[in-house]
Design brief:
With 389 residues, the chain is an alpha+beta fold. Helix content is 29%, strand content 16%. It is built from eleven helices and 14 strands.
């Protein structure tokens, strides 16, 4: 594993676009043949339809179309853009472009992550426990591009109420239950921002780090990620995955790239292109990446994840906390209570919608009603208790 960033091919934005456009066209054709795209379908008992479960387990991902209403998408987009407009001016800064305190600068875990435009800052490095084994090709940004741009905004449940409400979406929670069991618990959340002509890449990786050599390993032990799209995401700007890799254990990404002539355009990968309101679910063991956004599409992806409770209890902090942190029942319950508050926040806002029943908190739901008090006791700085395995 490299400890310092490897060199990467630096292309003009025009040449990067040309190469990616060809690859994207081929990848879209592969994706449309898989048959794992459509609306969320629940059976008469409110459980995820078995056809969807089978397709997800086969490929490692599914695209749920029209999962969010236009109104909810618009609220989320407006809130994200407001935060982005009042984000810090750069790494290590706490004020926005007007010199005022940036939104979220008071949070214990700083919610912003910056990258240099069109770059891959982590590929081929030891970052995130070395998950990003190979560096992506990079593109040359415009000469007038800023030095850094926001790539990730964390803490959506605290930053704006629409973020908390989508966290309590009943059908998506039913999907999480179907995949991880009724006692599922949270991972983390992150809003990925890929501005036109500026958004950096995220190198090929699998998310899991703890259970690859566990005697209990199986294809779902590292949990799942949801990603709600607030803009149209074409094959040129969206997430890419290699179907079926969630079943293969920890793959040698560097060897895969080398076998592909050193190119990061892996031959079996497919793009998760979406319309606004579509939500993807991806197994965290599935190999995935995103390419630099040299195109004119603005991509905002609201992402959050869920784990099996049994997979996290007793584990030490990985990725998100110091190693001495142990995910015991108290730690996990405290983080999981955010789900119950989110369910009630959604119930209060969407009064005609059937709420999800979250089994671990069903008997104590009254203690987790959405209110100013639960904002302080449950939501404020909740992301310091994120769970990463």
């Amino acid at each position: 594993m490299q400890t310092e960033s490897e060199s990467a091919e630096l292309l003009s934005a025009k040449e990067y676009q040309r190469r990616l456009s060809i690859y994207a066209s081929e990848g879209e054709a592969r994706a449309r043949q898989l048959g794992n795209r459509g609306p969320i379908r629940l059976d008469k008992n409110g459980k995820l339809h078995s056809d969807i479960t089978r397709a997800y387990r086969e490929h490692g991902f599914y695209v749920f179309t029209n999962a969010l209403s236009n109104a909810e998408v618009n609220e989320l987009r407006d809130d994200v853009m407001h935060v982005l407009a009042h984000a810090p001016v750069g790494p290590g800064q706490t004020v926005d472009t007007n010199g005022k305190p940036a939104i979220g600068s008071e949070m214990k875990r700083f919610p912003y992550h910056f990258v240099k435009p069109l770059s891959d800052p982590v590929g081929g490095t030891a970052s995130s426990e070395g998950r990003h084994m190979s560096k992506m090709a990079e593109a040359q940004p415009d000469k007038n591009a800023p030095e850094y741009v926001v790539q990730i905004i964390a803490g959506m449940c605290q930053l704006f109420e629409s973020g908390l409400r989508v966290y309590g979406h009943p059908q998506l929670l039913a999907v999480a239950e179907a995949i991880n069991g009724p006692d599922f618990v949270p991972y983390n959340d992150a809003i990925f921002v890929k501005q036109p002509g500026l958004g950096g890449s995220v190198a090929w990786h699998q998310d899991g780090v703890t259970h690859w050599n566990s005697p209990d390993w199986d294809e779902g032990i590292h949990g799942v990620n949801f990603q709600a799209q607030l803009n149209r995401t074409s094959p040129m700007s969206c997430l890419w995955v290699v179907p079926g890799t969630h079943k293969r254990g920890q793959v040698d990404i560097k060897a895969m790239v080398e076998a592909n002539g050193g190119s990061d355009q892996l031959p079996d990968a497919v793009p998760l292109f979406c319309d606004p309101g579509d939500v993807t679910i991806v197994n965290r063991q599935t190999l995935h990446c995103s390419f630099a956004n040299t195109f004119d599409e603005f991509r905002i992806s609201v992402s959050w994840g869920m784990h099996r409770r049994a997979a996290v209890i007793g584990q030490h902090g990985h990725l998100l906390q110091p190693k001495e942190v142990i995910y015991d029942d108290e730690f996990v319950d405290k983080r999981a209570s955010v789900i119950q508050v989110a369910i009630d926040a959604r119930r209060q806002y969407y009064s005609d919608e059937m709420s999800f029943v979250y089994q671990p908190f069903n008997d104590v739901a009254e203690q987790f009603r959405w209110s100013p008090e639960t904002f302080e006791s449950v939501i404020r700085d909740y992301n310091t208790r994120d769970i990463g395995i």
